[in-house]
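Predict the 3D structure for this chain.
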Amino acid sequence: MLKVENLTFEVNEEGKKRCLVNHISFDVKDGEMLVITGPNGGGKSTLAKVLAGIEKANSGEIYLDDENITEYDIDHRANAGIGYAFQQPPRFKGMTVTRMLSLAAGKELTEEESCKLLSAVGLCSEDYLNRQLDGTLSGGEMKRIEIATVLAKSHKVSIFDEPEAGIDLWSFSMLIKRFEEIHREKKECLILISHQEKIINMADKIMVIEDGEVKKYGTKEDVFPTLFQQEKCQKCMTEGGKC
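Done. Predicted structure below.
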């Protein structure tokens, strides 16, 4: 279980403090999926980076299974069980895809294991195993490989920052199936930052962030009651029932 209490992150811009994450609190129980959505620039990605340990919070507490990990850096948080997929993955010239997947898994992967991971994100594995993570790969290809690195290892909490960005429809469908499998297995918490309705519909909880603050937080029915009612009515009409 991940528990966040009054998390705050500030930056200095031209001598003035700007609060990008403003006293945010929430929890994600084991096996739950939380989808974070809201306007661009509202603080969603910043929150994800603070959770992963890339940025250090100014105040607040982060607990993982009742262990206070607030002071942990990114390496210690990864070892504690937090996985993170960047919205814009970094490139590493000289690093092959196979090597990166093995590093992410924490063990030497067989070709078959690497192929399975790449296939899960819609990549033809044989064409990518020995490719370098450099400028020869497109943004969409880098994005899918980045997601595969998180899928390479079981985590207590997996954070995906806009996993749909730069991915074609076919690969996105495969990714949705993989998220559904993880969610169904109930082995880890999932936190997805997304604007995609298909991903939002999968959520146990939804959090809307705007201007660094939580504007809405709860179940899909609580956060998007109108949308949920429309879906319910549509299902009723399809199945010949009544709302």
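The CA atoms of residues 42 and 214 lie 10 Å apart.
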